[in-house]
Specification:
The complex is a heterodimer of chains A (357) and B (399).
Chain A: E1 2-9, H1 45-50, H2 53-69, E2 76-80, H3 86-98, H4 107-112, H5 116-125, E3 130-134, H6 140-153, E4 159-166, H7 170-178, E5 210-217, E6 226-235, H8 240-253, E7 263-266, H9 272-283, E8 291-293, H10 295-298, H11 305-318, E9 337-344, E10 348-355
Parallel strand pairs in A: 2-3, 2-4, 7-8, 7-9
Antiparallel strand pairs in A: 1-5, 1-6, 4-5, 6-10, 9-10
Helix pairs in contact in A: 2-5
Chain B: E1 5-14, H1 20-28, H2 57-64, H3 72-88, E2 98-103, H4 109-121, H5 136-147, E3 152-156, H6 162-175, E4 181-188, H7 192-200, E5 224-231, H8 233-237, E6 245-254, H9 267-280, E7 289-291, H10 298-312, E8 318-320, H11 323-326, H12 333-347, E9 379-385, E10 390-398
Parallel strand pairs in B: 2-3, 2-4, 7-8, 7-9
Antiparallel strand pairs in B: 1-5, 1-6, 4-5, 6-10, 9-10
Helix pairs in contact in B: 2-3, 3-5, 6-12, 9-10
The chains are: A alpha/beta (357), B alpha/beta (399).
Chain lengths: 357, 399
């Protein structure tokens, strides 16, 4: 199966025709916010006014993807989101508390449901086909992707629009900060891996968000980004040994070994405990691999792996790492096969394997 | 891709009982579970009847074996999922590739909405343990961890069709040889968030709901959890009690009409039902009973009824909405009503559509008002339609 098109709204300039050879955007502070496009091109202005920010981002990323794929109505729409439409949820909840369950209006409630974005896309396209929404934390995007891949395999669909959306809002940033997720004090996204002293590292990461959509297709086309060879997830592994075993058995199932991988994209996020896992794998299974990170670009959030998927698709297409990555890699040959290994809080681990067409 | 997927076990907790046997007894004896609000602390307490599970969080926690501070959504889920697993007769789930696919609409919102009172006044206040399981997926993980399931876990949230979609996905994961055993269904606890949300839409009935009645006024919200244990042929062969029911059809379609309302002609409902029939290789005349979505709102019942008319005319199967017993349990409804559909097949019984007084004048059929026993049944269709136009239908068949 193939990745025919993408649409990505993120804290980098990834939307439309991304300037892949420009340096990444630097941020001061522990919260990265998306660059939002001019929505008028993609959504009816009457509708834009009614939509909250995450719905606009999700719908616009989906529309861009459909346009690039030249697909008017996909055979299925599958979305993933960990937190759902936070702004709508928080708004309805706040008013409900503030006005003691009186004087409420329905709009925020209606838009707070987790399937809102998939439903809005279906509505705009007048698409009566399969439509599903996954909401499983760090597996939300992976669950949506698996569903899309199965639909192609089952021949239930030839084109599936798969996407992930998550936003960070003031209330969620405040709560997650209190839970200790983010770095405190001055921090720059471009420096998160270089904590001092390096050997100890610091606690916490930087918050991010994004909306990334992909057109999966069963048949090849002239403009595909990459082939999607495989997906594997595993939950709460007992330790690094189990992670190594899961990675090896995934590669075995794909009938390749680690030397066949030209680039490994890992989900390092600057949090010392979280990054230790990647460092340990760098000593073992990824010992000889060329490795790069991506969360300095988009921040950490449960569906951040969708950004890595976008990045991997672009790298497989061009054969090289873009300047946008802001990192060099030791691969001195054309990159043909990319492995993404990501974990969210050491609970949700995922592997994506993509290759050049 | 068409290997049979069997129902090896069922588990349920709802307003009409804390397990399958209690719920069945209530259904058989026309005993509804809707009434004045007792456990949810809402200002609408004296105005809006609800279908609550008749246990406090402390009592539920004891039954579930979880701390009482955990979300009611998780407590309900674990009780029903445990029953389903024990009912399946599978001795050791770790022998198989086992998955837990759950669905819910608002996760740990019952805790979050209380946290928010303190938090809004001061962002540094409010107990974090009340928001730590806010995410829909966090509720699923509490239960998966307690059940010891880790091979595959996921959560679906497509409003009121959520748990029909998780059962549907479970069958696909077995047919694709990814899993052998799947505990699939959904859970939702009543929350002020949901109650007030539906209240602003002005579709909550201040009396007991009357689905498919000409003078219907709206829905009653309910809570609960329902799960089935889906197994492959290979697993079924190892069971002492061979499963008597299989999941033979399923379909997910979208109405693509409005974020909350159904199209007048029920396009999504029609596509879901006809798609499920096609998948199972059955004709409309093969369906013996339809467990209706039947919420009791003006809009749903005419849309669903019109779609049924288009698909089944002139020979209508027996039908009823068991939401007249359990209220609308939202993300749990596909799971709860899936279990009811299995029970109908196993016992040859049609459950009544309670409180139906005046049949809808625009529909050529009338749902059953009384219990009918000793019915020879082979195939039951279960409908779950939701916000966002998400429509799913499941077909359960006698083996």
């Amino acid at each position: 199966m193939y990745i025919r098109a993408t649409g990505n709204i993120s804290p980098q300039k990834t939307f439309g025709h991304p300037p892949m050879e420009e340096a990444p955007v630097a941020y001061a502070g522990n919260r990265l916010a998306c660059f939002e496009p001019d929505y008028k091109e993609f959504i009816d202005p009457k509708l834009i006014r009614r939509m909250s920010r995450i719905i606009r981002m999700g719908v616009a990323a989906a529309m861009e993807c459909l346009k690039e794929a030249d697909v008017k109505v996909p055979d299925a729409i599958v979305t993933g989101t960990a937190y759902g439409c936070m702004e709508d949820t928080s708004s309805f909840l706040s008013k409900m508390v503030e006005f003691n369950e009186e004087l409420l209006t329905p709009t925020a409630f209606i838009q707070s449901t987790h399937n809102t974005i998939g439903a809005q896309i279906g509505l705009m396209l007048q698409c009566n086909n399969y439509n599903n929404a996954y909401v499983h934390r760090g597996f939300s995007f992976e669950s949506a992707l698996l569903d899309g891949m199965l639909l192609l395999k089952e021949k239930e669909a030839t084109t599936v629009l798969v996407g992930a959306v998550d936003e960070i809002i003031n209330n969620s940033h405040a709560i997650l900060s209190r839970m200790g997720l983010y770095k405190q004090g001055p921090v720059s996204n471009l420096e998160i891996y270089k904590t001092i002293p390096i050997a100890i590292g610091t606690k916490g990461t930087i918050a991010g968000e994004g909306a990334a959509f992909f057109m999966l297709a069963s048949e090849a086309s002239a403009t595909d980004y990459a082939k999607l060879d495989g997906l594997h997830t595993f939950y709460k592994p007992a330790g690094v040994k189990e992670i190594e075993r899961q990675i090896s058995s995934f590669l075995e199932k794909q009938a390749i070994n680690i030397n066949d991988i030209d680039l490994v994209i890992t989900g390092k996020n600057g949090d010392a405990a979280s990054d230790k896992i990647y460092d340990q794998l760098g000593q073992t299974v990824f010992n000889n691999s060329s490795m790069v990170n991506y969360k300095h670009l988009c921040g950490e959030f449960p569906t951040a792996s969708s950004f890595a998927f976008w990045l991997a698709a672009n790298i497989a297409k061009s054969g090289k790492t873009p300047a946008l990555l802001g990192q060099s890699n030791s691969a001195n040959k054309t990159i043909k096969r990319v492995l993404v290994y990501n974990h969210y809080m050491n609970m949700h681990h995922s592997l994506f394997l993509l290759s050049a067409c | 891709m068409n290997e049979p997927v069997f129902i090896a076990g069922t588990g349920i907790i709802s307003a009409i009982g804390n397990n399958v046997a209690q719920c069945f007894d209530a259904l058989e004896n026309s005993r509804a579970g809707i009434g004045p609000m007792k456990y949810l602390d809402s200002v609408h307490k004296h105005r809006l009847p609800v279908a609550e599970v008749k246990l406090s969080n402390e009592e539920l926690a004891k039954l579930a074996g979880l701390p009482k501070t955990k979300s009611r959504t998780a407590l309900l889920s674990l009780i029903a999922a445990k029953e389903a697993l024990s009912n399946s007769g599978i001795e050791n789930i770790t022998k198989w590739r086992t998955g837990f696919l759950s669905a819910n609409s608002v996760g740990g919102m019952d805790k979050t909405e209380n946290f928010f009172k303190t938090f809004l006044a001061d962002n540094n206040k409010g107990r974090l343990r009340d928001v730590v399981d806010h995410e829909c997926g966090a509720v699923t993980e509490l239960v998966a961890d307690a059940l010891g399931i880790k091979d595959h876990i996921s959560t679906i949230s497509t409003a009121c069709s959520s748990s029909a979609n998780s059962i549907f996905l479970g069958a696909r994961l077995i047919r694709n040889d990814i899993l052998d055993v799947v505990v699939a269904g959904g859970t939702d606890a009543l929350t002020k968030f949901t109650l007030n949300g539906f209240n602003t839409l002005m579709i909550v009935d201040e009396k007991l709901c009357q689905p498919f009645d000409e003078n219907r006024r709206g829905l009653n919200l309910g809570e609960g959890a329902g799960y089935v244990v889906l197994v492959s042929d290979k697993v079924a062969a190892t069971l002492k009690n061979k499963p008597s029911v299989k999941l033979s059809g399923y379909c997910n379609a979208n109405d693509a009409y409005h974020q909350t309302a159904s199209s007048p002609e029920g396009t999504g409902s029609y596509l879901a039902m006809s798609g499920a029939l096609k998948r199972s290789g059955l004709q409309p005349a093969d369906i013996d009973y339809i467990n209706l979505h039947g919420t009791g709102t003006q809009n749903n019942d005419i849309a669903e009824g019109t779609a049924i008319k288009r698909l089944f005319a002139p020979h209508y199967p027996k039908m009823s909405s068991t939401k007249t017993f359990t209220g609308h349990t939202l993300g749990a409804s596909g799971g709860i009503e899936g279990v009811f559909s299995v029970l109908a097949l196993q016992h040859g019984i049609i459950f009544p559509n309670l409180r139906l007084e005046t049949p809808m004048k625009d529909l050529p059929f009338v749902p059953e008002r009384e219990v009918i026993k000793n019915v020879k049944m082979k195939h039951v269709l279960s409908n779950s339609f939701g916000f966002g136009g998400n429509c799913s239908s499941l077909i359960f068949s006698k083996v």
